[in-house]
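Sample intake sheet
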Amino acid sequence: TFKATEAVVSTQSTGRPYMALEFLKNKITLLMQERDKAISRADDLMDTVQEKSDLVTKLENEKRDLVSRLALADNELDSLHDQKETMATEKSELEVEVEKLRRENDSLQNAIDTFETAFEYKEKEIEDLQKQIENFNLEMDELVG
């Protein structure tokens, strides 16, 4: 490394100590300017790192929210699936009950048809008996009178 005192000593023999000092001052100024630029770039990089860190945090929070929402949706889907299975079971049970009621209805309809046929037959018997009674009464009236 080049030291300022060495530059002054070496320039004394040539008679140009002030030029070497000016050179060193300029060099120090340039180095300080470069240092300031480096600090500024470091600050910019720190700002960028902070922005990226904030973005990562935001994305992690969004991911957590989405995972949570996905879990809720998955639970809701499971619940809906369970409801669907329950409804399918209830539907099957109702279909069995409907079929049983249809058979019972058919049986009752057959009983009604049988009763109506028997009723019509009895009405005919009654009509026949009434005619026999009328005929008997007419025969009795003729015999008596």
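Comment: The mean pLDDT is 89. The first helix runs from residue 4 to 12.
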